[in-house]
Design brief:
It is a single chain. Helix 4 packs antiparallel against helix 5 and helix 9 crosses helix 10. This protein is 83% helix and 0% strand. The chain has 17 helices and no strands. With 412 residues, it is mainly alpha-helical. It is globular and about 60 Å long.
Length: 412
């Protein structure tokens, strides 16, 4: 190895041009996502009834859930960079096309639904591929730090994207906002094209079989892996218990307590601050000792904060509890993602990312109507208690599986 190559291999992630290019592209895409969804919701509400607007917003979830596992196969077959570039290119063209259409005419809800459908299908390719890129651009002992940086970029994109989209709508209407989103997706393309990928180790896996065979091989690999198999169960349980109360229960709780919209804002701000702090911790430290055990304990303790949220009558206490939930659940989630990155063979990482993403983006949103119906029947307290119990079960399961409890992140 030359001195230049050795220096590149020892370079920390936050000083690695390759990682920074990937991070810049990911941040641009995340900003584009936030602006796009705000523009889509505004356009849908302006063009139809609330029920029709909700249907348009939900359309993208269907192809994303149905095609996610196939997207993991495509990422592993074609290579994650190629898939991410193609996905962002399609998103840029489709969204810019919608912006041009809205400037010239008023196509109605059908055009919005069609774009949402395409967007969901492309997301099913983009999400597994973007998760499979880090091992191709960073050393294994830097992958945990990369996940922390990714978490910070995601939080920044979500926080900055909403006001940026709102400003674009205020200045030029939804067409302008869609145009801004399309430009942001396009900005990622030169950064992604400039990436130089690290070679993968030789993998003894046939590549001349069908996509279905590749998917079966990937699922078999995960099932037989002593860490990844149990970890997928943990991710599923954690998302199942966490996503519903955060997205549905908090709004109901704030209304019942008389906190209003500003109350939801304070609670979500507390959660976002805690989750951002967890990502920052991982980005700065590069690893957390006894990562598997820490993930289990933080998930279990975070479950207590989730249950306590439904019991407190005071907004400042609720915001503090939300910060605690964000910090603990955020750290647990970041550690789970980092363990997927470091434990998985890079040749299977697209499929592994697809399976873990399917739990949070495909299955967990299905709990929204169930959570709402349960709150109508039993109230927020019992529902939050059940959700907290599921999260606690995920944490205790982590601690009960020896290989998962002892899982470590590489030193970096």
């Amino acid at each position: 190895m030359t001195a230049t190559a050795l220096a590149a291999a020892q370079r920390p992630a936050h000083r690695d041009p390759q990682v920074l290019r990937w991070l810049g592209a990911y941040t641009a895409s995340t900003l584009g996502d936030s602006v796009y969804y705000l523009a889509l919701s505004w356009s849908a509400v302006s063009s139809g009834t609330p029920a029709q607007a909700g249907l348009v917003m939900a359309v993208s979830a269907v192809p994303r859930a149905l095609l996610m596992l196939g997207g993991g196969v495509v990422a592993d077959r074609l290579g994650p960079r190629r898939v991410v570039i193609a996905s962002d290119a399609v998103r840029a063209l489709v969204v810019l096309g919608l912006a041009a259409t809205l400037f010239l005419a008023s196509p109605g809800l059908w055009a919005l639904a069609a774009v949402a459908l395409v967007f969901g299908a492309v997301d099913a390719l983009f999400l597994p591929a973007v998760g499979a890129l880090p091992p191709r651009i960073a050393a294994r002992d830097q992958l945990a730090r990369v996940q922390g940086m990714r978490g910070l970029a995601h939080r920044s994109g979500a926080v900055l994207g909403a006001p940026l989209g709102g400003l674009a709508v205020a200045v030029g209407g939804p067409a302008t906002a869609f145009g801004v989103a399309g430009v942001l997706f396009a900005l990622s393309l030169p950064l992604l094209s400039a990436l130089r990928l690290r070679p993968l180790p030789t993998v003894d896996e046939a590549r001349d079989g069908t996509a279905l065979r590749d998917l079966a091989d990937g699922l078999r690999y995960l099932r037989g892996h002593r860490v990844l198999g149990p970890l997928m169960i943990v991710v599923f349980l954690g998302d199942l218990g966490f996503v519903g109360p955060l997205n549905v229960g908090l709004a109901v709780l704030s209304e019942q307590r008389g906190w209003g919209a500003s109350g939801i804002g304070w609670i979500l701000a507390g959660f976002g601050t805690g989750a951002g702090a967890a990502s920052l911790l991982l980005a700065v430290r590069g690893r957390v000792p006894r990562a598997g055990a820490v993930s289990g304990w933080t998930m279990a303790v975070g479950a207590v904060s989730i249950a306590a949220l439904a019991l407190t009558p005071r907004l400042p206490v609720a915001a503090a509890l939300a910060l605690s939930v964000g910090l603990l659940a955020g750290l647990s989630g970041a550690l789970c993602n980092a363990l997927v990155q470091t434990e998985c063979d890079p040749a299977h990482l697209g499929r592994a990312t697809a399976v873990s993403g399917l739990a949070s983006l495909g299955m967990a949103p299905l709990t929204f109507p169930v959570t709402g119906a349960a709150i109508d029947l039993w109230g927020t307290g019992p529902v939050f208690a059940v959700s907290a119990s599921v999260c606690a079960l995920a944490g205790l399961y982590t601690l009960a599986v020896p290989a998962l409890r002892r899982a470590e992140l590489p030193t970096g």
